[in-house]
Amino acid sequence: MSEAIRQESPLVERITSGRKAASPSDAGITLRERPFLGCVNLRGNPDDPDFTDAVKGVLGLALPSGPNTVADSGDITAFWLAPTEWFVRTGANAERDLIAGLEEALAGQHIATNDVTGNFTTVELSGPHARDVLEKGCTLDLHPRAFAPGQCAQTLLGHAGILIRPLADGQAFEIVVRRSFADYMFIWLEDATVEYGGMAVSD
Amino acid sequence: MSQTKRLQSGGRIDRSKPLTFTFNGQSLQGYEGDTLASALLANGISLVSRSFKLHRPRGIMGAGAECPNSLVQVGRGAGTIPNLRATQTELYQGLEANSVNCWPSVKFDVNAVTGLFSPLLPAGFYYKTFKWPKSWWDKVYEPRIRKAAGFGKAPTEPDPDRYDKKNRHCDVLIVGAGPAGLAAALEAGRRGARVILCDEQNEFGGSLLANRQYLDGKPGIEWAKTAVAELESLEEVTLLARTTAFGHYHHGFVSLLERVTDHMGLTSPDGRPRQRQWRVRANQVVLATGAIERPLVFCNNDRPGIMPASAVSTYINRYGVRPGQRAVVFTNNDSAYQTALDLNDHGIDVAAIVDVRPESDSVLVDRARKEEIPIYGGYAVVDTRGGQHVSGVKVMRLNGRGDGVYGEIHHLDCDLVASSGGWNPVIHLHSHPGGTMRYDESIASFVPDQAVGNTYNAGACNGNFALGGCITEGLSAGATAAAGVGFGSEDIEGEAPATGKQQESPLRPMWRVPSRKAIPRAPKQFIDVQNDQTSADVYLAVREGYRSIEHIKRYTAMGFGTDQGKLGNINGAGIAAEALGEDIAKVGTTTFRPAYTPVTMGAFAGRELGPERFHAVRKTPMHKWHVDHGALFENVGDWKRPWYYPKPGESMREALDRESYQTRHAVGVLDASTLGKIDVRGPDAAEFLNRVYTSGWKTMEVGKARYGIMLSEDGMIMDDGVSARIAEDHYHMTTTTGGAARVLGHLEEYLQTEWPELQVYLTSTTDQWAAISLAGPHARDVVAKVVSGVDLSGGAFPFMTWRDCEAAGVPARLFRISFSGELGFEINVQANYGQYVWDAVWEAGQEYGITPYGTETMHILRAEKGFIIAGQDTDGSVNPMDFGMHGLLSKKKDYIGRRSLSRPDAMREDREQFVGLVTLEDPKEIIPEGAQLVEEPNANEAPKPVPLHGYVTSSYYSSTLGHSIALAMVKRGRERMDDVLYSPQADGRVIQCRITSPVFYDPKGERQNV
Questions:
Q1: Which end of chain A is more exposed for a tag (fewer CB within 10 A), N or C?
Q2: pLDDT of A71 over the 70 cut
Q3: DSSP β-bridge partners for residue B137
Q4: Residues of A in contact with B620 (CB under 8 A)
Q5: Which residues of chain B from 187 to 216 reach within 8 Å of chain A, CB to CB?
Q6: Fold of the domain spanning B525-586
């Protein structure tokens, strides 16, 4: 037990330094994992100002109230999931403090916070063919006119449930996937990119 | 001599790019831009196949999707494709094609002898003849008929090609890139709408590719080229050539099949898929699918060399092929006069235009007269001559009603008959979602009436055959569609190109050309040449009492072929109307269903193939460790769970014996991460659990855990699991691995619809926790080395409690629970630390002989204890009383399913009850799971049915007990301890077994409570 405490992403076997080095330079899409980001699932009543104000005080931003929208302050990203549910993401190892802060500010209210840092991992897909690849397994309209930065959606990519948002007009997307599906999704993406020169993996 | 029938110039082929291909082993040459059909015709080959039933010689007939004849087998080996239509198969270098449905060769086909017996083979022959004896159905009739009939051969190897799928949304989908479709695309695309324009051909232009009409004073194809160039420059316009819209469903959902690399060879040359299925969701759909010319139905109209007139023009104008030396044009309308002119202009002798109309007057007719082409007005072709190719026709004068012929027989020699009975709008896609149609007298065919959703028909598919009208309708449909999504108004913004004078005289409808003899004595008049259905068959169907066109179709098999009656079905409806003495408008057509043309199965499968992509595969944080330690895996829900860990040379039984022994005597470790986990929180959380579980939960204190079962509304066991109280208003619920999503949905439904007054939030946390389960006498020793911050002694940390702690320095929840009957703990840590903590546990357990065990050993250990697995021992038809779980049924409160438990059926005394079984003759024999149990010792010989008394739900060899054990549901089982039952097996054996308690091991539960 002398070993230092070690975290492993669900893509630890896929995203290796060798895989990064061997990535094709002309790949149609590039995948970048952002592992270990602190993730909190938050439940509460958005019609109750005591809730929304207290959350805003802790997060430094207002929870998005529109369906399938995202609020992003750089440090904190909050995704609307359902009328009483948000996915709040912060930096690595910051989730416990965030939960503690929320629990303190919301004490006495009917709310729920859950640490879901281990429940998910986040990947970014970018490149000229990012949308082409996603269209193979996602039935939503990903065109920038229909799905622009500031929006998000819960949908399927192949057979994996994902939370997705565009990062740039049609060129880059962020995908949050349950960790148990991450390996399947990686295999799916690698296969889907074959016709576009393969998938590069970057830091 | 190569391509002797090729014209010196003209057409859309590239004479500088010759391609070599083989047909029935013969090496031939064609050009880029050819289809296999046009290349064959260029080489003077027209006989390509044999018909389905009578094996009559069949030539290339059409020039596209409508051709019923030109089926070929392309390629060989795994990549071979049966039944491709040569008219739709683009030529590529090295293409190998062979005829189908003939042996030994297409020119000499043994089964052609069938044709001699054809009077004995009318419609319905199969239904009437092959009825007796019944025992011959599957042993004689079916194999023989299948052998004689059918077309190409399916490959036996797996398909080596890639197929893919794509989802795409758009504002306007336009199907068909002929004049109307191009005009619609220009109108919508210029306004900035997201447009998809698809066309089944390799090149856009539609009819302009094959005719010689002028637009703005230039050949129409030049206008099409300019239009395509402009569309290509528009960022939001997607152009898909070689793409067939094959299905149109509701809400603008349209399936397209893009043949991405079919034209390059048998297998894709790069990573691209061979074909791609587009699943388009369009706000607006513009159908510009054109029209298909219907041939006239006359005696012996199936000989090779007899073609629709438009196909003849297509081969001349588009492919630069001379389809014959001397032609007879047979028509009831003006359009075939253009074919006569096309023939005449290319030096092909036109022996005559036989026109069923006594008089006709139009621009085209005038031109034919000027060219001095003989015109037989008011005449009909009554029969043809020829063997493997047409060699002449007989022509007679028609009577005024068009139902008889008289006078002198004119014999005209020819090797080509171009016939035209008018044009049928392609209303397939309009009709798929339920669009209605009406009969249009002026074209003697069916046109779209009411469309479904935002669907618009434009051009020939709308019954408008004039070029100028097609373009105007296209512009208008494009404008309406674009306006429908907010791009401009419905007024046309673009300008239509100028067209020439297009005055026509009316056609004379004629479904069946009369002959000298009455049906059925007249020579065969083919309606469906692929399936050999004739006008006599339709008359027979009507004589036998069929009235609906749908029934007539099914009785005659008309339109059953791979062409789905594109050429013949409207003629068939017309002839049925004639036989029924009704109006064709009333008879109507058969139903148009997807797919418009055949779609490869691969295009539906896409990349969802093989163990990695057929379905999602869920893996635990410790998956790689299990692989590295030799685990074999079992699918549980979507998860891969370690099944058992055989060591080199170990059999499955030996591995299971070892894993069981080590766990019962030392310590075993199991990856339990896959269990469903739901966080339940809110002021009403305790009340909520009280309502969803059968037992009482309000009294359970914080820090404790309890086993619970959930019922469906029908009182049957739905799921089970252990839930722990985290705080007054907070629980951690677990479910079965496979039931997690279903349980969460069930609970959410109740919260949202039945009990909105309850303040409870549910959050799925299944993937958040890596769960490491330790069981065995040394479990506490191992946990003590890893975990800190908790007093592990039995007094301080009793069975069915939990504590917050740290495991290897990582925040953890430690549960004292057991599914094996042994002293058990479960460590839960955030999943990213799962492997790290597992490693720590593994290292700590070494001195105690720790062994990993999989689901199979887990099943054995729990079966020894009589613990059920929801989904294995339950099947949705068993209630808690059947399992003797009366103690878990609270009488003080209501819960989901409670009322159903008092139904008479639930209270029945002879219900099957949960018991154990041991085998008698061979104590180690394992009864197969699912085996039936009876009281009759000689069940295999006894009169049937033998009364059933139960069945086996779980069955294993228990090394701990030294004999096999089984769990079973047996009628009144609990009253029948020590009774003997028999389990007859499929192989004739009968296994004798004795009923026991389902708890085989440590019935007092002393081992888990230490």
A1: C
A2: yes
A3: none
A4: 180
A5: 194
A6: Arc Repressor Mutant, subunit A (1.10.10)
Q: Please give the ipTM for the structure prediction.
A: 0.97
pLDDT in tens, B344-372: 999 999 999 999 999 988 899 999 999 99
**Chain-chain contact of A6 with B833 (C-beta, under 8 angstroms):** yes
> Shortest Cα distance from B823 to chain A (angstroms)?
24
Topology at the third CATH level for domain B623-674+768-862: Gyrase A; domain 2 (3.30.1360)
Q: Copy the structure tokens of residue A107.
A: 């004490």
Q: Which of A85, A146, A194 sits opposite B271 (nearest CB)?
A: A194
Tokens of B203: 């090149």
Whether the CB-CB separation of B901 and B880 falls below 8 Å is answered with yes
Q: From the CA of A70, how many Å to the nearest CA of chain B?
A: 20
Please check whether residue B888 is in contact with residue B898, taking contact to mean a CB–CB distance below 8 angstroms. no
**Of B256, B761, B769, which to mutate for an interface test with A (greatest number of A Cβ within 10 Å)?**
B761
Q: Which CATH number covers residue A97?
A: 3.30.70.1520
- Residues in contact with A102: Cβ distance below 8 Å, sequence separation at least 6, in sequence order: A40, A42, A54, A55, A58, A111, A113
Asked if residue A94 and residue A70 are part of one domain, the reply reads yes
Identify the closest residue of chain A to B673 by CA–CA distance: A180
Same domain, A92 and A31: no
Q: Which of A2, A8, A45 should we substitute to test contact with B (largest number of B Cβ atoms within 10 Å)?
A: A8
Partners of B621 on chain A (C-beta within 8 Å) are 8, 10, 118, 179
Contact B824, B774 (CB under 8 A): yes
Distance in angstroms (rounded) separating the CA atoms of residues B477 and B448? 14
Cβ density class B483-493: b for 16+ within 10 Å, e for less: bbbebbeeebe
Residue A16 contacts B where some CB pair is shorter than 8 Å:
no
| CATH 3.40.50.2000 correct for B295-421+508-517 | no
Substitution target in B763, B769, B842 with the highest count of A β-carbons within 10 Å is B763
Reported as a single tens digit per residue, the pLDDT across B508-560 is 999 999 998 888 788 999 999 888 899 999 999 999 999 999 999 999 988 88
Task: Tell me the C-alpha distance between B467 and B122, whole Å.
Answer: 43
Q: Which of B165, B169, B766 sits opposite A143 (nearest CB)?
A: B169
Which CATH number is B163-291+425-484's, of 3.20.20.100, 3.50.50.60, 3.40.1110.10, 2.60.40.420? Answer: 3.50.50.60
| DSSP letters for B780-849 | HHHHHHHEESS--STTTS-TTEEEEEEETTEEEEEEE--SSSSSEEEEEEEGGGHHHHHHHHHHHHGGGT
Closest CA to B828 of B841, B818, B813, B807: B813
Tell me the HSE value of B927 on the side-chain side, using a 13 A CA sphere. 30
Q: What's residue B444's pLDDT?
A: 96
How many Å apart are CA B188 and CA B300, to the nearest integer? 48
- Domain extent listing, chain B: 1-155, 163-291+425-484, 295-421+508-517, 525-586, 623-674+768-862, 678-766, 909-1010
Q: Which of residues 259-298 of B touch A (CB under 8 A)?
A: 270-273, 279, 281
Determine the Cα–Cα distance for residues A69 and A152; give it in Å rounded to an integer.
Answer: 5
